[in-house]
């Protein structure tokens, strides 16, 4: 008997009428996993176009094991997760267990040692993976809970499956779409209770980290603190923001008090979107769209 309770709800779903599961072989399935949401998207690789998006909100989920349980439950009723014929499946995981290492210093046998310097991951329970950023000449080393790895492998036993860290997809996408200038700029990706901050300058990525916040005061503290650490002026900088934030939210209101210019980011522009995507805020679901730009 299944004793695992359902702790999710489908909060948003869009699908292009022209899409059918028979097209799976020419499509990529993207999955974004966090403690607050499981999000799915389908992109037709031949047309370079997003055609499906599904957003499952997780309720009273507090651990990666519970996320894995909810992913399995969603798969029982979700045809996208039951399909075994995708061109490829790419997954991003959001957690604080990551570090970026220069490629010249990287030694594969010391992955756990690099990560242990920056993270309190569990070497027994977690699996350590890496993603090579060719343009940065850096390696993103990260940990993912073993329960999530097992759930993904069970769902897609014969699929081409790639797992990346949230920060890798954000870095790839932001560097890809912003123009190279002599200015340094800060970018923020907002999740419920987590904010990823990136600083990009003339030479590329200069800073990247994820912070846990409980209140709007925590949220703005980290942003101002990192700006000051990076010698950036909140009165002069423009902060570009993506993610789970709205104009009328307490997070946006407190940003306006302390940051002179706030700009909501846009979807990646090198890919097309079904007309059904046009009604959504441009800055939402950036983590899903960004998976399309990973390699």
Describe the structure.
The protein contains eight helices and 15 strands. Helices cover 25% and strands 34% of the residues. The mean pLDDT is 94. It is α/β, with parallel strands linked by helices. Strands 1, 2, 3, 4, 5, 9 and 15 form a seven-stranded mixed β-sheet that branches. It starts with 7 loop residues before the first strand and ends in a 5-residue tail after the last helix. α1 packs parallel to α4.
Please outline the helices and strands.
Layout (H helix, E strand, L loop, with lengths): L7 E8 L11 E7 L3 E8 L4 E10 L5 H14 L1 H4 L5 E6 L4 E5 L8 H6 L9 E8 L4 E8 H10 L5 E5 H12 L7 E7 L2 E8 L2 E9 L3 H14 L8 E6 L6 H9 L2 E4 L7 E2 L12 H5 L5
Parallel strand pairs: 2-5, 4-15, 5-9, 10-13, 13-14
Antiparallel strand pairs: 1-4, 2-3, 3-4, 6-8, 7-8, 10-11, 11-12
- Describe the oligomeric state of these chains in a short phrase: single chain
What structural class do you assign from the helix and strand content? alpha/beta
State the share of residues found in helices, binned by percent: 25-40%
Overall average residue pLDDT: 94
Contiguous low-pLDDT stretches (5 residues minimum) are none
Total helical elements: 8
Beta-strand residue fraction: 25-35%
Radius of gyration: 19 Å
The string of secondary-structure elements, in order, is EEEEHHEEHEEHEHEEEHEHEEH
Intertermini distance: 41 Å
Give the strand tally: 15
Per the principal axes of the C-alpha atoms, what is the gross shape?
globular
Biggest sheet details = 7 strands, mixed
């Amino acid at each position: 008997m299944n004793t695992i309770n359902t702790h999710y709800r489908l909060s948003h779903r869009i699908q292009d009428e022209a899409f059918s599961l028979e097209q799976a072989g020419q499509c990529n399935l993207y999955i974004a996993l966090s403690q607050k949401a499981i999000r799915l998207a389908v992109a037709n690789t031949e047309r370079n176009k997003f055609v499906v998006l599904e957003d499952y909100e997780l309720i009273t989920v507090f651990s990666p094991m519970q996320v894995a349980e909810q992913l399995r439950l969603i798969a029982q009723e979700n045809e996208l997760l039951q399909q075994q014929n995708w061109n490829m499946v790419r997954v991003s995981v959001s957690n604080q267990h990551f570090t970026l290492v220069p490629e010249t210093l990287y030694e594969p046998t010391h992955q756990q040692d690099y990560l242990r310097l920056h993270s309190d991951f569990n070497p027994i329970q977690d699996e350590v993976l890496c993603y090579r950023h060719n343009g940065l000449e850096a390696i993103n080393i990260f940990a993912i809970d073993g329960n999530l790895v097992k759930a993904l492998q069970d769902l897609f036993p014969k699929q081409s499956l790639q797992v990346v860290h949230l920060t890798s997809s954000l870095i790839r996408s932001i560097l890809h779409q912003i123009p190279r200038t002599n200015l340094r700029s800060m970018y923020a990706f907002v999740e419920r209770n987590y904010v990823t901050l990136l600083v990009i300058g003339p030479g590329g990525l200069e800073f990247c980290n994820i912070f846990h916040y409980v209140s709007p005061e925590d949220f703005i503290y980290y942003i101002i603190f990192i700006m000051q650490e990076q010698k950036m002026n909140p009165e002069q900088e423009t902060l570009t923001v993506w993610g789970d934030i709205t104009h009328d939210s307490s997070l946006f209101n407190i940003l306006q008090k302390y940051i002179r210019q706030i700009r909501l980011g846009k979807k990646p522009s090198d890919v097309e979107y079904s007309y059904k995507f046009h009604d959504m805020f441009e800055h939402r679901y950036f983590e899903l769209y960004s998976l399309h730009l990973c390699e």
